[in-house]
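Re: export button greyed out
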Amino acid sequence: MRNDQDAQDVVQESCMNALRSFNSFRGGDFRSWFFTIVRNTSFTWLRRKKSSSAPASRQSLEVGAEITADCEVYDPQAIAIRAANADLVRRAIAALPETSREALVLREMEGLSYKEIGKIVGVPIGTVMSRLARGRMQLQAILMEMDQPNADKPVQEGAR
Amino acid sequence: MTCDQAHPLLHAYIDDELDIATALQIEAHLPDCPKCRKELEAARAVGRALAQPAIYYPAPSTLRDQLQRVIRSEIGETEASPHPRFRIAWWKRPMAFSSVAAAMLLIVCSVMLFLPTHAPRGQIDDLIGSHVRSLEENHLLDVASTDQHTVKPWFAGKLEFSPPVIDLSAEGFPLIGGRLDYLDQKKVAALIYRRDKHLINLFIWPGDTTPEVDARQGFNLIRFECKGMTCWAVSDLNAVELQQFADLFKAQKAASTRS
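Workaround output, generated via the alternate export path:
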């Protein structure tokens, strides 16, 4: 959503949609069911917003789109140092292509299994795995290529 | 397993999506392959980057109030209804009932796991049962590793909480792995430690508790709290050493959090 108010609106709308379609909940994993609703609501909401306002400048944000899966593997320690800058990580996530971002957030931040992610996103488990593998490579690359105005501070202090 | 075979499975390995036999083959391949090791470490660094609480956008408390308001108006519950006599009791209206149930689920699900659980007496028997079952062949470990940094992430995604995992090999209680277990119809973490030839099962689930010591059927049991988690150590080890283990676990966890 890329802005607080929009995100809150979508959460609210998702909850209402969940309430209205609670009859369709056939047991099983409540979280997956709810995430599916949140996802559908988000897309509907985005489509609606897009048609009513100027097209979002998504192209410029997705700098990671052209990075392919066979790009360089970076030094884990260098990644860890950059990853300590939360703002940088947030920007890197925002720069990921949509499919990679979705898979990574559901896996790394929500802790869902491949099966659950596959069900929510509507793709086979193998696709979930390849999206995650690609997403991780892309995120590394974005993290390492981003300008980071403040991130070097702890390193410099250590060197002095 | 060759690098060509192992490489495509690395991410499934990181995410614990492999069966235990394949996972063990990957684990055997890793020490010989710097390339796979580097990619694994890099991917784990990305995982840690995404898991840090600082990058989450917390929902403001106003959103909860707002949600409660709109849910109320959705199910037609208003503070002062103009015709109270004509209203059907809310729990008799199927839609209202399911809405309330959903609303409660939404709110309750997130907090339920953090409420303290009180151990009923029958639980002691369940704990011993679990311990004995775990001693049967092929039942002890789901993840075999002496590395706390392998065992702890293994539980991510399998449990709704993150159990404290500490290696105590320096103190004579080496960690040998972890397992998912069921107690009271809920998933709990089981860490397995060894003391000489005795195995210790440490069952962990969220919730405050009070210390307790018990001994039954030749097993010693010790309950203690660690960082808001209820921990039960079960073993045929003597009570003194088991208590020592419990104290060490608590002390080390406290020390590792401070540092």
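The two ends of chain A are 41 Å apart (CA to CA). The button fix ships in the next patch.
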